[in-house]
Amino acid sequence: MPAPHKSPTTPRAERPKHGLVSFILPTYNELETIADRIQSILEAVGDPMEIIVVDDDSPDRTWSTVEKLNDPRIKVIRREGTRGLVTAINGGIIESQGELVGWMDADMSMPADLLPS
């Protein structure tokens, strides 16, 4: 069994600075986890950062919750009549401005503390 992955141990102040990072979060009914997921990414990666939430018109109004965060680093794309993980990620990539682009599930199944900062 492989050893568990450990987060980098180099203090943040000693790590090289990065350009704008774009993170794409495809969502569908993620109301209960989306605010925590966004906060965990912002804390793990730091600025400069943009988060692009691509929501497939969630009945639980995930997109509305994200809009209420009112953070200029967060962009919401609400897709009505279109669904699918791959097309959501592709749509986010097209809208991204970052030098680096990544994506992560919004359901907290991927720990944000494993992200390089």
Fraction of residues in helices? 25-40%
Poorly predicted regions are: 1-7, 9-13
- Derived from helix and strand composition plus strand pairing, the structural class reads alpha/beta
Given this structure, which CATH class is correct? Answer: Alpha Beta
What portion of residues belong to β-strands? 15-25%
Order of helices and strands: EHEHEHE
CATH homologous superfamily designation: Spore Coat Polysaccharide Biosynthesis Protein SpsA, Chain A
CATH topology: Spore Coat Polysaccharide Biosynthesis Protein SpsA, Chain A
Number of helices: 3
| Total domain units | 1
Q: Which radius of gyration do the C-alpha atoms yield? A: 15 Å
Strand order of the largest sheet: 3-2-1-4
Shape: globular
Total beta strands:
4
Could you say what the CATH architecture is?
A: Alpha-Beta Complex
How far do the termini sit from each other?
27 Å
Write a short abstract of this structure.
This protein has 117 residues and is an alpha/beta fold. It is built from three helices and four strands, in the order βαβαβαβ. The chain has helices at 34-45, 62-68, 85-95; strands spanning 21-27, 49-55, 74-78, 100-103.
What does it look like?
The chain has a single domain, classed as Spore Coat Polysaccharide Biosynthesis Protein SpsA, Chain A (Alpha-Beta Complex). The protein is built from 3 helices and 4 strands, in the order E-H-E-H-E-H-E. The protein has helices spanning 34-45, 62-68, 85-95, and strands spanning 21-27, 49-55, 74-78, 100-103. A 4-stranded parallel beta sheet has the order 3-2-1-4, with helices on both faces. Helix 2 (62-68) links the parallel strand 2 and strand 3 (74-78). Residues 1-7 and 9-13 have low confidence and may be disordered.
